[in-house]
Design a protein that fits this description.
eight-stranded mixed beta sheet; elongated; 15 helices; six-stranded antiparallel beta barrel
Length: 508
């Protein structure tokens, strides 16, 4: 990883952002992405939405990563100036005694330490016990008067440690959960811009308050309402002593990003992530998630009418401690995987479980089947009649994906309409043929000979049939129409008779 990228990651994790106080990291993100994102929006929760417009009309994708970290909050200030605290998010009281912390006040940072009686003064029976959080106090080294002047109830506290590289390509810091995800989301967007943008809009949702219930993801998913979403977070590495792999899986640092699989994950998204990893030879791991996950994915999946959601994580040791450990190689591979997945999306992508990859091609397939049946019946084939197909240039992926399951019933109705039109045509012409673009003037003459009617009447009859097919029957009764110039089946030499009301002309 380049030095300038390491510098950005270090700045993110060392900037305090305890849940509910994420604004400083939000400002860093806005500054970093000011010349990359087309749109930057910060909602009233504090989540930052960075959007890169797509080059086409492919599905929109939201990549969610939360910027809040666990911490403590001041709940009481004693007469002696010691602070009592409560946890923000999941904090293990066992790791706190003896730790240096930072209290974040309106006037700046105040250093403190978590005090505990030394072992010499602890009764033998109590030495094995974990001191409950509400029994711990923070000593900031100031007089009671100074403490009360500088510190207020509700001030947030973070671990007083920072970022370091160590070992074999590893890094340690507080706050990798999940500011490493914020780093990855920004890098993915920068990559997409260099690659010429994804097919659809890409939004990096840098969310707040994940640690107390994925609250930022709830509002962000609702307002962005993407076609597809990826949540990014960290997950528990199990490659150190004391972890039961049969219970928690075999997840290792340096072995690649982790792709989650389970009911909180759309199976089509999962398979596409795996395919993207294989395409670029990116190492990856799979994690079983048999229930809802403790990530933004749990909120995004059930937002709006349901959003196809995937979850990617990087392995992390010692979660929610001051010494969270990651592999920088996993970070690089996660960026590569998400970039590849995003660039592979197109407007025909489908994420309906069990009906994967159904896009607009289904329309053509059904028309082919109908045309084959028509040809078998001895009727006109490929262009025998016209149906109003959706405008593919303006049709959104969301519309196609959500209507695919109902498309069969719609086609049944259209087929029934077509059959009725065929029946009417047979009655009018006394032949077994269907009007359409393949019916030229010569064919109209043949029909005239067979039926004994004039070519003008034949053209008018065919026009009436098509008009009835494309319009409401009540409109037909109030409209006098015959073959307009250029209508299939009309002799170009015939004089066109226009509808009385031009707005009633069907699109033929």
């Amino acid at each position: 990883m380049k030095k300038k990228q390491i510098k950005f990651l270090k700045k993110l994790v060392e900037t305090p952002s305890p849940t509910g106080s994420e604004e400083h990291v939000a400002e860093i993100v806005r500054e970093r992405m000011a010349y990359t994102a087309d749109w930057i929006n910060t909602d009233t929760m504090g989540s930052v939405h960075l959007t890169l417009d797509g080059r086409d009309n492919g599905p929109s994708l939201m990549l969610s990563a939360h910027m809040d970290e666990v911490g403590l909050m001041v709940t009481y200030i004693s007469d002696e100036g010691f602070l009592s605290v409560a946890s923000i998010g999941g904090v293990d009281a066992a790791i706190l005694p003896g730790m240096r912390v930072d209290v974040h006040t309106s006037s700046g940072k105040v250093r403190g330490v978590v005090g505990r009686k030394p072992i010499h003064l602890i009764e033998a029976d109590d030495r094995k016990q974990v001191t409950p959080l509400d029994k711990l106090v923070i000593d900031v080294g100031l007089s009671a008067k100074e403490v009360k002047q500088r510190i207020r109830i509700g001030d947030a506290i973070t671990y007083g440690v920072g970022f370091e590289r160590y070992g074999n390509g590893l890094a340690v810091s507080r706050g990798f959960d999940d500011k490493v995800g914020v780093f990855i989301a920004c890098r993915v967007m920068e990559n997409l811009l260099q690659l010429g943008r994804s097919s659809g809009d890409f939004t990096a949702a840098i969310t707040v308050q994940e640690e107390i219930g994925t609250r930022g993801a709830i509002t962000s998913a609702h307002s962005i309402n993407p076609d597809i979403a990826l949540a990014f977070d960290v997950t528990h590495a199990t490659d150190y002593p004391g972890i039961d792999k049969s219970k928690y899986g075999d997840i290792r640092l340096g072995k690649g990003p982790v792709i989650a699989r389970g009911p909180n994950i759309n199976p089509c998204v999962f398979e596409r992530l795996v395919a993207a990893a294989k395409e670029k030879n990116i190492p990856y791991q799979i994690e079983a998630e048999p229930s809802v996950t403790g990530t933004d994915a749990r909120a995004i999946q059930i937002s709006q009418d349901g959003i196809p959601t995937g979850l990617i994580s990087i392995p992390l040791r010692y979660m929610h401690t001051p010494t969270e450990v990651i592999s920088l190689k996993d970070v690089q591979n996660a960026i590569k995987l998400i970039t590849t997945f995003t660039m592979n999306l197109d407007r025909d992508s489908s994420f309906i479980p069990g009906i994967d990859n159904i896009g607009l091609d289904i329309v053509d397939d059904m028309f082919c089947d109908m045309r084959k049946n028509s040809e078998t019946d001895g009727e006109a084939g490929e262009n025998s009649y016209a149906l109003d197909e959706p405008d593919q240039s303006s049709s959104s992926f969301h519309d196609v994906a959500r209507s695919a399951a109902e498309f069969t019933e719609e086609m049944k109705e259209l087929i029934a309409m077509a059959e009725e039109t065929k029946k009417l045509t047979r009655e009018i012409t006394g032949t077994n043929v269907m009007p359409g673009p393949t019916m030229d003037a010569a064919r109209v003459a043949e029909l005239s000979d067979e039926s004994g009617d004039s070519t003008l009447n034949i053209a008018r009859n065919l026009d009436n049939v098509a008009f009835e097919y494309a319009s409401d029957a009540e409109v037909m009764n109030e409209t006098s129409a015959c073959a307009p110039a250029g209508f299939p089946g009309a002799d170009p030499s015939l004089e066109a008779c226009e509808p009385k009301d031009e707005s009633l002309r069907p699109e033929l």
